[in-house]
Amino acid sequence: MKTFTSLLFALLLATSALAQETPQTQLQRITLSAGIHQLDIQVALTPEQHQIGLMYRTAMPQGEGMLFVFQNPSKQCFWMKNTILPLTAAFIADDGSIVNLEDMQPQTTDSHCSLKPVRYVLEMNQGWFAKKGIKAGFKLSGRAFGN
């Protein structure tokens, strides 16, 4: 019986490890607007969803991203451990205004932080905001921001 229990425990640990190394692609989706551009955005609401974020993704179509939603405004800091894609993080105020943008390099633990307390962080493929001419102060719209 002890061997069976040990085997079961090892199997559960292996399953848990595999689940942690799998990209999360089934989160709720919403549409956000950046001027004339419509964005297909997955929404990360829970601490576990925040922690996994876009880790383990090998590709993400242009115009797609992930919005991290936090309960209260605070200084938000992100890093790229286990994240393969180069990303840009947009730190966003409650009204949808971009506070600051930070380019983030894959597989690093460098901190990229908001310049002031925010509740939202939008990660997109690196260069997406720059190609669209979107900078700090630009206002995104959509139901997440109440507009």
Structural features:
8 strands; globular; alpha+beta; single chain; six-stranded mixed beta sheet; two-stranded antiparallel ribbon; 20% helix; 3 helices; disordered N terminus; 147 residues; Jelly Rolls
CATH topology: Jelly Rolls
Q: Which homologous superfamily in CATH is the superfamily?
A: Protein of unknown function DUF192
CATH domain class name: Mainly Beta
Please, how many domains?
1
Taking pLDDT < 50 over at least 5 consecutive residues as the criterion, the unreliable ranges are 1-19
How many distinct beta strands? 8
Termini Cα gap:
60 Å
Helix content: 10-25%
Mind telling me the C-alpha Rg? 17 Å
Major pleated sheet = 6 strands, mixed
Average pLDDT rating: 88
Structural class: alpha+beta
Question: Architecture, CATH level 2?
Answer: Sandwich
Q: How many DSSP H or I helices?
A: 3
